[in-house]
Amino acid sequence: MNVKERERLLRQMIRIRRFEERCVELYSDSKIRGFMHLYIGEEAVAAGVLPALGPGDAVVSTYREHGHALALGIPMEAVLAEMYGRTNGCSRGRGGSMHLFDAGRRFYGGNAIVGGGLPLAVGLALADAMQGKALVTACLFGDGAVAEGEFHECLNLAALWRLPVLFCCENNFYAMGTALRRAQAQTDLALRASSYGMPAWPVDGMDPVAVTEATERAVESIRGGAGPCFLELRTYRFRAHSMYDAERYRAKSEVEEWRQRDPIPRLTESMRNDGELDDAALAAIESEVEEELAAAIAAAEAGAPEPVEGLTRFVYAERRP
Amino acid sequence: MTTTYRQALREALREALAKDERVFLMGEDVGAYGGCFGVSLGLLEEFGPERVLDTPMSESAFVGAGIGAALGGMRPIVEIMTVNFSLLALDQIMNNAATLRHMSGGQLGVPLVIRMTTGAGRQLAAQHSHSLEGWYAHIPGLRVVAPATLADARGMLWTALLDPDPVLLFEHGALYNVSGELEPDAGPVDIDTAAIRRPGRDATLVAYGGTVRTALEAAGRLAADGIDAEVIDLRTLRPLDVETVLASVRRTHRLVVVDEGWRTGSLSAEISARAAEFALYDLDAPVERVCTEEVPIPYAKQLEDAALPRADDVVAAVRRAVS
Ligand SMILES: Cc1ncc(C[n+]2csc(CCOP(=O)(O)OP(=O)(O)O)c2C)c(N)n1
Ligand SMILES: [Mg+2]
């Protein structure tokens, strides 16, 4: 991978990380409310997967989707304004952190029902296939979804009908406080997926270069008409499941071990060693991200709250034939 | 033209598949088998496997796929064998179909039709006979319709497909074999209003789906005794056309609701509450309700019959109201 591409990955990961670090502060200030699930530690997945999709490809995501939304190109201010519940939010204040949407970019949400997005992805892929469009639908979900019936129904259906779905399992080894090994008899998730008759393989989800390459390979196969693919992206969340929890379900030493693999310092170091990045370049990335963040916060602060008079809007279409 | 409820539904499907290439039918055994109640018989042969898709027994996956395909620009018709099985797809219906427009701030819509069989009367016992459409009628974001007549069986589907929001269409299982006359040029009908199936002066009978026949039978018997009952077919269960009901109550001053759902927390409760809220002073008698007994539907014929709203019960209720 060339310097430019590696720099792009680094920049994207830093952007997502700094955004969420600021979200923590805004949450403490009560600017953001509700459930907020941080992606900190997992940025290599979003930075690798989303940009490897092509124009017009669709994305279905989960409640832990700030990184996905940002990496897909939804403006930071639209994401933040949504978390503020403002009119300029990407779901007009109806969704919040867990339900970011962007129809124009084919980002079909932030789904907060574990496993609930998989059937939508299968259907979107079915619609594209029926209309003869060579598009891919990427569906991101956690290891927890593997325990749901919808996961199995959907992998089978997508494989049976050879639909263009890229299943991206973000395996961070925990579903809230339940370790994967306490929920699944067979913890090799790629193996599970391959039993449905689709190519499936594990990927180092702490390495954005590996994620990019895996996604490109999978997307190429899917676009070529070979049917769905499954990537098990092995990653780790550094923080609590939601904003706060006591983290009694895992050892501090385990978290510390994974932090050693933090994708941001890892790529930074590797680029430095290869002479691809110096202090000035890194500082430039940081200050550009800081500028974008400041502008996003200003836009969210300036956004009008959605008017209460419009409370019952968007339940049914405003125009019917 | 003599036809049946089943044939009328099939004609509607055929019309939709022929008129709009975005329309496709998907569900368990809708193709090779012809539909578990024979509604889609012959459509696979006529339209091919790209338009009539047999799915695995994965209600959540294929209902959700219908939602996704609707988001993706298609106009899917999803068949679920019976309302009892729709519970395996409830997550997709409630958490996705009904919410996506709102959660996305109006960016997305789900133009999808989900058809399913409802109701008892065929000795199918407690996992194939329930009337759960009232549950679905509870949910903002959905439209719920229940064709009770041949014309509605023929005409509701197309209008539902044109609607930008998800429509659940409940076919009463005991009606499939009902035959009658249908205009040869019968076509799309509205899905917004209730219909007066029999005008009358003395009492308002409100029914929908399978109970419309029960109410009409009761009204016929009452007429022999000089009691003139009006029968209203709700047709659409969400949003309710309350005005038609209230206007009738203001004329007849008596209300009897016939509902194959259980009484507690039912559509009949909703209609009664609306009457209490908006027409209390027009009522000359307490609202009467004839509903299914609060038991899972039993198998044995005499037990099933006793559990369901019967014309006798409706006649008795109207007599109490007018006495
Ligand atoms: C159907 C369902 N059951 C339970 C929950 C509550 N819940 C929210 S997140 C979560 C854990 C999900 O873990 P995973 O899929 O691995 O995703 P992660 O949070 O690790 O990203 C649970 C149990 C839910 N949202 N949906
Ligand atoms: Mg997890």
Automatic annotation (TrEMBL), chain B:
<keyword id="KW-0560">Oxidoreductase</keyword>
<keyword id="KW-0786">Thiamine pyrophosphate</keyword>
<dbReference type="InterPro" id="IPR005475">
    <property type="entry name" value="Transketolase-like_Pyr-bd"/>
</dbReference>
<protein>
    <submittedName>
        <fullName>Pyruvate dehydrogenase</fullName>
    </submittedName>
</protein>
<dbReference type="Pfam" id="PF02779">
    <property type="entry name" value="Transket_pyr"/>
</dbReference>
<dbReference type="InterPro" id="IPR033248">
    <property type="entry name" value="Transketolase_C"/>
</dbReference>
<dbReference type="Pfam" id="PF02780">
    <property type="entry name" value="Transketolase_C"/>
</dbReference>
<keyword id="KW-0670">Pyruvate</keyword>
<dbReference type="GO" id="GO:0000287">
    <property type="term" value="F:magnesium ion binding"/>
</dbReference>
<dbReference type="InterPro" id="IPR009014">
    <property type="entry name" value="Transketo_C/PFOR_II"/>
</dbReference>
<feature type="domain" description="Transketolase-like pyrimidine-binding">
    <location>
        <begin position="3"/>
        <end position="178"/>
    </location>
</feature>
<dbReference type="InterPro" id="IPR029061">
    <property type="entry name" value="THDP-binding"/>
</dbReference>
<dbReference type="GO" id="GO:0016491">
    <property type="term" value="F:oxidoreductase activity"/>
</dbReference>
